């Protein structure tokens, strides 16, 4: 990979944006490589979790300036194709069956904030600056919008979409956008602790829990939804992993997935 550093240790993959000279700003190459990487990692049955971070001084500063200069001359059709590639990349990360832990430091602007928004667990270092800066350029955060609104909430998005104000990691924590805000010195240890917790859980159960949240969020609690959730718990109780987990708990022993 030209723009990513991919490290796999046991059941955990770590994907780092690796363009520190431009603060990990992304272009069409980064978009293509992220899409391909998360498609491949998501299908790997040996993996249990993915960490997404960036090398250098920033997590991701948004779009690459050279790429933006090129796009300035695009036709409408070219702009549409380019935006659809970005939308597909975001969807690929958001729908990855494995839990994705975001490791955010430095700046997290525009499309970089979209990358943060698709993570399942988000850990930010104190002092991180977030910004949905598109309106300053006469643009809008369209492709990242659905994920940011889900992660940040509609009311906060109303403000930060239209004002393009910066807000720090502590504010992001207050909004519920960030799950943990920690000193930069403990960023990696906090991420590692969360990853260890994920790996200790049932592999199929973790995937099913992630899918459950995505499927029920925002839905009315109808008879159909109640029946669907009853079916899901019955399915997993009757599965090999579900039976093993319950028996291990009852017999006060470690489940097989921890001893393997």
The CATH C-level class name of the largest domain: Alpha Beta
Fraction of helical residues? 40-55%
List low-confidence stretches. Answer: none
Overall domain count: 2
Defining traits:
alpha/beta; 3-stranded mixed β-sheet; about 260 residues; 6-stranded mixed β-sheet; 2 domains; Lyase 2-enoyl-coa Hydratase, Chain  A, domain 2; globular
Q: Would you give an account of this structure?
A:
It contains twelve helices and nine strands. The protein has helices spanning 28-42, 65-71, 76-94, 111-117, 145-152, 154-163, 169-175, 187-200, 203-216, 223-238, 240-250, 256-259, and strands at 4-9, 12-17, 49-54, 100-104, 107-109, 121-125, 129-131, 166-168, 180-182. A six-stranded mixed β-sheet has the order 1-2-3-4-6-9, with helices on both faces. Strands 5-7-8 form a three-stranded mixed β-sheet. It is globular and about 65 Å long.
Short description:
The protein is of the alpha/beta class and 260 residues long.
How would the blueprint of this fold be written?
Blueprint: E1 4-9, E2 12-17, H1 28-42, E3 49-54, H2 65-71, H3 76-94, E4 100-104, E5 107-109, H4 111-117, E6 121-125, E7 129-131, H5 145-152, H6 154-163, E8 166-168, H7 169-175, E9 180-182, H8 187-200, H9 203-216, H10 223-238, H11 240-250, H12 256-259
């Amino acid at each position: 990979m030209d723009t990513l550093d991919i490290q796999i240790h046991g059941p955990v993959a770590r994907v780092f944006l690796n363009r520190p000279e431009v603060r990990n700003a992304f272009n069409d190459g980064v978009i293509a490589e992220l899409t391909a990487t998360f498609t491949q990692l998501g299908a790997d049955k040996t993996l249990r979790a993915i960490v997404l971070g960036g090398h250098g001084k920033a997590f991701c500063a948004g779009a690459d300036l050279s790429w933006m200069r090129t796009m300035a001359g695009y036709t409408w059709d070219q702009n549409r194709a380019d935006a659809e590639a970005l939308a597909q990349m975001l969807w690929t990360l958001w729908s990855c069956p494995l839990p994705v832990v975001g490791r955010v430091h430095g700046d997290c602007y525009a499309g970089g904030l979209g990358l943060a928004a698709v993570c399942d667990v988000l850990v930010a270092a104190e002092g991180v600056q977030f910004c949905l800066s598109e309106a300053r350029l006469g643009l809008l955060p369209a492709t990242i919008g659905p994920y940011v609104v889900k992660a940040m909430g509609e009311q906060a998005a109303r403000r930060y979409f239209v004002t393009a104000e910066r807000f720090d990691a502590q504010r992001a924590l207050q909004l519920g956008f960030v799950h943990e805000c920690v000193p930069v010195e403990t960023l990696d240890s906090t991420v590692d602790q969360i990853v260890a917790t994920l790996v200790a859980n049932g592999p199929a159960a973790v995937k099913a829990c992630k899918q459950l949240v995505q499927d029920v969020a925002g839905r009315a609690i109808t008879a159909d939804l109640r029946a669907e959730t009853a079916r899901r718990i019955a399915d997993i109780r009757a599965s090999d992993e579900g039976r093993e987990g319950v028996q291990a708990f009852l017999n006060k022993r470690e489940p097989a997935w921890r001893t393997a």
